[in-house]
């Protein structure tokens, strides 16, 4: 089975969105360079960020997100973001009315079920868990192997926390990766077991 990685861009003070669910400048680093990160050409980063991020994106088999993120993005119009094969949505509600049942989205109840489904779908590829409430629940359940952060030089002061509702201490190993890009610091930590 592939590793479970909790990931997001994050403000220096630990937020993935402001109090109105807006990312503000958290994704500015994705347009701060001259190297296209995907086929759209809209996402351009520095060569350093490209080398790190493209290699990571190419390893992801499944992304896990909460229903709140799914609803905010309108379900990515039924197409998983970033060329990922599948999205597992953690929710207590059924798919939206009129949802295309053939879209590669899987609706499950609870983070343990989400991890099980995602690992089944991903095989030996990475399972990415969106940071925030669901990511925090997966971390608290002891199911995260690695934490990746793209730290952006902005202070929000309040908003949606990277680790969501986590209220207990979780030790991480020393950073395995520390890479400076344009307007971003890429960090990677293994979760201490």
From TrEMBL:
<dbReference type="InterPro" id="IPR024072">
    <property type="entry name" value="DHFR-like_dom_sf"/>
</dbReference>
<feature type="domain" description="Bacterial bifunctional deaminase-reductase C-terminal">
    <location>
        <begin position="114"/>
        <end position="176"/>
    </location>
</feature>
<dbReference type="GO" id="GO:0009231">
    <property type="term" value="P:riboflavin biosynthetic process"/>
</dbReference>
<dbReference type="GO" id="GO:0008703">
    <property type="term" value="F:5-amino-6-(5-phosphoribosylamino)uracil reductase activity"/>
</dbReference>
<protein>
    <submittedName>
        <fullName>Dihydrofolate reductase</fullName>
    </submittedName>
</protein>
<dbReference type="InterPro" id="IPR002734">
    <property type="entry name" value="RibDG_C"/>
</dbReference>
<dbReference type="Pfam" id="PF01872">
    <property type="entry name" value="RibD_C"/>
</dbReference>
């Amino acid at each position: 089975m592939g590793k479970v990685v909790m990931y997001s861009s994050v403000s220096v003070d630990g937020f993935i969105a402001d109090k109105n669910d807006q990312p503000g400048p958290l994704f500015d680093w994705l347009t701060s360079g001259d190297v296209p990160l995907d086929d759209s050409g809209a996402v351009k980063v520095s060569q350093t960020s490209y080398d790190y991020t493209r290699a990571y994106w190419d390893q992801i088999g499944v992304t896990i997100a909460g229903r709140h993120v799914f609803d905010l993005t309108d379900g990515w119009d039924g197409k998983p973001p970033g060329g990922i094969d599948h999205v597992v949505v953690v929710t207590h509600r059924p798919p939206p009315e009129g949802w295309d049942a053939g879209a590669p989205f899987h609706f499950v109840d609870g983070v343990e079920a989400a991890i099980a489904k995602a690992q089944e779908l991903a095989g030996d590829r990475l399972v990415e868990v969106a940071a925030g409430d669901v990511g925090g629940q997966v971390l608290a359940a002891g199911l995260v192997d690695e934490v990746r952060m793209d730290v952006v030089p902005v202070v929000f002061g309040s908003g949606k926390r990277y680790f969501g509702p986590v209220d207990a201490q979780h030790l991480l190993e020393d950073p395995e990766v520390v890479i400076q890009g344009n307007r971003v610091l890429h960090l990677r930590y293994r979760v201490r077991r």
